[in-house]
Design brief:
The structure holds three protein chains of three kinds. Chain A is an all-alpha fold. Chain A has twelve helices and no strands. In chain C, 49% of the residues are buried. Classes of the chains: A mainly alpha, B alpha/beta, C mainly alpha.
């Protein structure tokens, strides 16, 4: 009996090996490398700095780096605002989609899907074109409707961040909508029938039944989007470059700048380690609260 | 007797010819790797490469890309010493850094080698001022200018010459409308020509806004490049003659306030402007004047993309306390670890021959050879030629010290916060003074730049 | 349904469709700009009806050699998909069929790759590839993209493998088939549609990706997104051409996404929901 288990274990391992090897090479090794150079003083601007050991110096610098904290704050604002707006909008769209069925539903769903599939870089590009003060669509509409809005939202810190949030919302709300829609479709019908028999009205049904049923999926979506919102590099890069000033300098843009514009590779590596740890914490929280909960259900 | 002499003469000529050809063909079959910025001059040079390959038999692999990308790749290649490139083209302000790290080979050993002389290359034809600014450090020559450019002023000469505008200007400001030669005039003109839709311009009613000027206000190299003109011109700058740090000098504050003051005469969205946006705005015909790099002029004169072909005039930047013209250049260097330095040297010479430089000039580049500079065909054909020549005479270079890259980055940040209104000029420059003092700790005064 | 309810439903539908239409305007604008001449693209008021031209496409793909970048994107996507499948399918099968010691750790690790910001891996990979002289080659970017896709393949395909009843495996084993044989000859063919969908997602992920490609590819190997910023030069931005490249980046993705629409939710939630 135990022999059979062992051979099964061995087979399982063999099936997993290619994945393990590739992952180790491409993720584990770089992470360790990152950790290593974060303890040195490597900068491309100083030959031989690759080998100057400085211990935790880079980490101390991060703690006192005003721009780093600004970047974290910008990222936090971005993630929270973006995820929240996507959630609300996404749920509404999902409810609307759910209202219709059959081929109409499929048509609407495929239209809704479009923004998600556009490459993030192209989304950024699209918006920078629309927001062009001379010939962009936005500027034209502001004039047409005599709106009391700035024609150059990208020039002011607050509105630039808002634009960035908007582009992210535009791109990823379909994600929230589709996830919610799937949850709605998978929801059992009994609670609804029971509620109707009991004479509940629409809003009671919505708040007391629908929401709790789709809550797990919503939680998952929030966390997924929250994490992935940190990956907003493409759009920020092409749309604002971190500016004006540093009002839209999200954390991955900040790290990129440190590494590839200022060539402070060790400092950037230390930043990566810090960012990774933050994400790891997110991941653990997620594992405990979401997946843990699901397997308990 | 004569016959014998003739035979000997022919024989000598034959040997010499063979030797000369041999010099050039010595490295036939070798491949050299060159990296440069993806720009018109580089593209123009690329077209000429088959000629080089014919003369020398050396194959050229040219890699190009946008500035940040290319510089990053070059820095990495130099640092890791893997011999990735035989020739690099890098902005000249990196020179100090590259020398300090001992990344480059000096050129004199090559210059002295008779067996590597390329036929059409004439060292004395190189514009010495330009070449020493781009590639010389403490008397040793390391590189030759690859793409040079200089900042001048673009202005709409058709508008300036319009009689109605001239009359209106004189009436308002009390002096003749002409090409501005100082900053007061520049500002007056910028103010005068900023118009809303419905206003008049040259007798026609405007459908969209027109602006007196446009500045580069994005947190980007373009902004610091432009602002340095104002700073130097107002009598300020980063270092004084002795090398002391004077960035918080009141003249700089004045220059920065002036720069900020031009925002209201510029199209909205200055914090997004780099050279690219400025060029587009001029091409679209919505701006009257700009301080710009002369290598953007060819695009202004390109009928495919510009609405103002033939309507733009080119002149020197207005003079403040001193006349200025910010000099920019990328320089060709031979890295220490170049696999084929001799072949690279042949390439360097070839790029700086009359034929190649003229071809580059005709496609929007700027040569570093006196003969090409003074070529009448160019000054006839290219409307921006004369202004460029005048500007090169008074060119001002930015610091080439090793710390400049970081200092430039700090300047970009502080200045952009002034343009976006988050802090005052005085504050920004005080911040820079402090930051620069930290960066240059122990190295002040900076004796050599 | 009462007449009133039906009327409401119809009205809401119209509003909803209008909303979706306005939502998609930015994208339609991009695509239409790619077919406009420069003059028309910049005209105010913006033109809805214009004379379409393919000049931008010709200029950028042929004269500016973006056709090469298009080819690069295709090469990378193809190899990334292949490698992701070759590596991910067995692992997905193993998760579905076996209970191995350390399952959870591996699963958590795969989850981790999804949570890791791209820059955190791109930076060291830049060095490692440079040291190995692989910096501007295809190998670096293909391996990097594949690693990110494995998690995705594993989760999606695990779900599909789970739908095949274990009894089929059992009977094959009884007939003397090895696990490997059962994997190849039974499970794979039965999940062909799932594999197709997964491949398409892998290809899309690689095709759209920017940061990693930007850092790891060079002049000759740049994919379309990487080459795109190159059209914003100091001498002017070629908006029509940018729009053309943007359209080419997005349109194949949309076509394929439409095909795998059914599996969209599964794809997006891959691994997040057990």
């Amino acid at each position: 009996m135990s022999l059979k288990v062992d051979s099964k274990q061995r087979t399982a391992l063999m099936f997993h090996i290619p994945a393990i090897v590739l992952l180790t090479l491409i993720t584990m090794v770089p992470l360790i490398y990152n950790l290593r150079i974060s303890f040195y003083d490597f900068s491309l601007t100083r030959a031989g700095s690759r080998d100057i050991f400085v211990g935790l110096e880079n980490y101390k610098m991060i703690l006192s780096d005003h721009e780093f904290w600004n970047s974290m704050w910008v990222t936090a604002k971005f993630v929270i605002a973006s995820t929240f707006i996507q959630l609300v909008l996404g749920v509404i769209i999902a409810l609307m989609l759910n209202y219709y069925s059959g081929s109409l539903n499929r048509l609407l769903t495929s239209l809704v899907m479009i923004p998600m599939m556009v490459a993030p870089l192209v989304v950024g590009l699209m918006y920078s074109f629309i927001l062009n003060p001379q010939f962009g669509l936005y500027s034209f509409l502001v004039d047409l409707f005599h709106l009391n809005l700035s024609k150059t939202p990208l020039s002011a810190g607050g509105s630039a961040l808002f634009v960035l949030i908007l582009t992210d919302v535009w791109e990823w709300t379909p994600f929230m909508a589709l996830m919610t829609l799937a949850a709605l479709k998978a929801a059992p019908i009994e609670p609804y029938e029971a509620a109707l028999i009991d004479g509940a009205n629409r809003s009671q049904i919505f708040f007391r039944i629908t929401i709790p049923l789709i809550r797990p999926v919503i939680a998952v979506s929030i966390i997924l989007r929250g994490v992935e919102a940190c990956k907003v590099f493409d759009k920020a890069f092409i749309l604002t470059g971190g500016g004006p000033g540093n009002s839209t300098e999200v954390i991955d843009l900040f790290i990129y700048r440190e590494a590839f514009v200022k060539y402070n590779f060790s400092y950037a590596a230390a930043l990566c380690v810090v960012l990774f740890i933050i994400m790891l914490i997110f991941g653990i929280l997620y594992w405990n609260f979401v997946i843990g909960k699901q397997s308990n259900d | 007797m004569r016959k014998v002499l003739l035979v000997i003469a022919v024989f000598c000529l034959f040997i010499t010819a063979t030797l000369l050809v041999a010099a050039e063909q010595k490295y036939a079959g070798v491949t050299i790797r060159v990296i440069a910025e993806q720009q018109n001059p580089t593209l123009a040079m690329q077209k000429q490469i088959p000629n080089f390959e014919e003369i020398t038999g050396i194959k050229v692999e040219l890699e190009m890309g946008p500035m940040d990308n290319v510089v990053g790749k070059e820095m990495l290649a130099l640092e890791s010493g893997t011999g990735a490139y035989d020739i690099i083209s890098i902005p000249y302000q990196f020179l100090g850094q590259l020398i300090e790290n001992e990344y480059l080979q000096p050129l004199d050993p090559f210059l002295n080698r008779e067996d590597l002389k390329l036929e059409d290359f004439d060292k004395s034809d190189l514009i010495s001022g330009m070449v020493s600014a781009s590639g010389e450090w403490k008397g040793v020559s390391y590189g030759i200018t690859s793409n040079s450019c200089i900042m001048i002023m673009f202005y709409r000469k058709d508008i300036f010459e319009n009689p109605e505008e001239k009359a209106a200007f004189k009436a308002k400001y009390g002096y003749e409308l002409k090409v501005p030669v100082n900053w007061i005039q520049y500002r007056d003109l910028a103010e005068f020509f900023t118009r809303k839709p419905g206003d008049n311009l040259m007798g026609e009613t405007l459908k969209q806004s027109f602006y007196g000027t446009s500045i580069a206000g994005k947190r980007h190299d373009a902004m610091t490049c432009e602002w340095l003109n104002y700073a130097w011109s107002f009598g300020g700058g980063i270092f004084d003659e002795k090398g002391n740090l004077i960035i918080d000098n009141p003249k700089n504050v004045e220059a920065l306030d002036y720069f900020k003051g031009l925002v209201k005469f510029s199209p909205p969205g200055v914090t997004n402007n780099t050279w690219d946006e400025l060029t587009t705005q001029m091409q679209q015909g919505i701006v009257a004047m700009q301080i710009q790099w002369n290598d953007c002029a060819p695009s202004i004169e390109d009928p495919e993309t510009s609405k103002v072909v033939g309507k733009v005039g080119y002149a020197l930047i207005p003079k403040g306390e001193v006349p200025v013209a910010h000099f920019g250049a990328w320089t060709y260097f031979i890295p220490v670890d170049a696999p084929n330095p001799e072949a690279a040297w042949l390439f360097l010479q070839w790029v700086n021959t009359y034929k190649v430089q003229k071809a580059i000039a005709l496609e929007g580049g700027f040569p570093c050879l006196t003969s090409v500079y003074n070529d009448p065909e160019l000054s006839e054909k290219l409307p921006y030629w004369k202004a460029s020549l005048d500007a090169y005479e008074i060119s001002t270079t930015r610091p080439r010290i090793p710390e400049w890259n970081i200092m430039n980055n700090e300047m970009m940040l502080e200045l952009s916060m002034v343009i976006s209104g988050e802090q005052t000029s005085a504050q920004a420059l005080a911040n820079l003074q402090k930051k620069y003092n930290d960066i240059l700790k122990g190295k002040l005064p900076v004796a050599y730049q | 349904m009462t007449k009133k309810a039906l009327a409401i439903k119809r009205t809401v539908l119209i509003i909803f469709i209008l909303f979706i239409f306005m939502y998609l305007i930015p994208y339609f604008w991009l695509v239409s700009t790619s077919f406009k001449t420069r003059v028309e693209a910049f005209s105010i008021p913006p033109k809805l009806i214009f004379k379409a031209t393919i000049k931008n496409y010709r200029m950028v793909f042929i004269e500016k050699n973006f056709g090469k970048n298009l080819l690069n994107s295709m090469i990378v996507a193809f190899f990334v998909t292949s490698i992701s499948l070759i590596v991910g399918l067995p692992s997905a099968y193993a998760f579905s069929r076996f209970r191995m010691k350390g399952d959870k750790i591996l699963f958590f690790y795969l989850l981790g790759t999804r949570f890791t910001p791209v820059i955190v891996l791109s930076l060291p990979l830049y060095f490692i590839m440079a040291d190995l002289r692989l910096l501007n080659s295809f190998i670096g970017i293909i391996l990097a993209h594949s690693a990110f896709n494995i998690a995705f393949v594993v989760w999606m395909m695990k779900g599909f493998f789970d739908t095949i009843p274990k009894e089929i495996d059992e009977s094959a084993r009884v007939d003397g088939c090895s696990w490997l044989g059962s994997f190849f000859r039974i499970s794979i063919p039965l999940t062909a549609h799932g594999i197709a969908a997964t491949s398409i997602f892998c290809a899309i992920n690689s095709w759209n990706e920017f940061l990693m490609a930007f850092i790891l590819t060079g002049y000759k190997t740049a994919t379309l997104p990487v080459a795109l910023p190159g059209l914003m030069t100091p001498q002017g931005t070629f908006w029509g051409q940018i729009a053309a490249v943007g359209s080419v980046i997005t349109i194949p993705v949309l076509i394929f996404a439409f095909i795998v629409q059914k599996y969209m939710v599964q794809g997006m939630s891959a691994g997040a929901i057990k």
